[in-house]
Amino acid sequence: MSSNASRLPDAELDELPRELADLKSKIDALAGEERASLGASYDRVVDSFRRRRRILSLVQEALSQLRLDIKYLMFDLEVTRKERDELRENRGDGEF
Description:
Layout: H1 10-14, H2 18-29, H3 32-91
């Protein structure tokens, strides 16, 4: 997959763990300055979580592409070896 588009739906990438959702509801239940202070910290944690999830997704996609590339290279190597062996047989001497 040469595109940078993720194979995961955006909703799945944005989904937060239940623990973070519970924390948000508890922060929202607070009053005044505590709510604002903890809310800002919560937002930073959520941004970090989403960034890490996107990075993980990109790494997984890169690994999938690498696996596919390796399969193609292994196939190409096998075909090249067969062609080399056939050429050797046709020459009749077994060596180059």
